[in-house]
Amino acid sequence: MELLVLGLALWWIAHLQKSAGAPLRQKLIGALGDNAFRGVISLLLVISLVLIVVGWRFTTPVAVYDAPSWGSAVATPLVLLALYLFVASSTASNVKRLLRHPQLMGLAVWALAHLLSNGDNRSLVLFGGLGLWALVEMPLINRRDGPREQPEPVPLAADLKLVAIALVAFVVLYLVHPYLFGSSPSPL
Description:
The chain has helices spanning about 1-20, 20-30, 35-60, 70-90, 95-100, 100-115, 120-145, 155-180. It is mainly alpha-helical. Helix 1 (about 1-20) packs parallel to helix 7 (about 120-145). The longest helix has 26 residues, at about 155-180.
């Protein structure tokens, strides 16, 4: 569990430095140079991901709460929504007119989906930690960046293309989930 928590802590630190740690960030960039600083942050993120994966694998799941009986059934469409938000964040989309941070919102929805279908200690730490980070990050970015400009509308065809991409990604993840993560996402 310690490795999982350490990995999440490094994830938070590496990401929050841009939105919440601007003065320290500028000092470090001044001392190291921009490229070296980016390299250090990239290395921290890689280390955090390795620690998260290894920490997850070596933590024995212990029940913390009973996931609701309907949790798995609700998780499936929530994960599809999360994938759509994630995909929609990378290109022009009408969802960006509604949400300033579709990628972070997608991560929060993904985390919620997993918390509704898993009640063990490592799930609570991983999904709760990442979901909480996404929710904390959004207002910090808003504060840093100030008011946002409303994006221009895009044709409906662009949004439909993103839905198709999200559906394909969902099917692929659904099929490989048992092999990668050891559990089937099927509510049945």
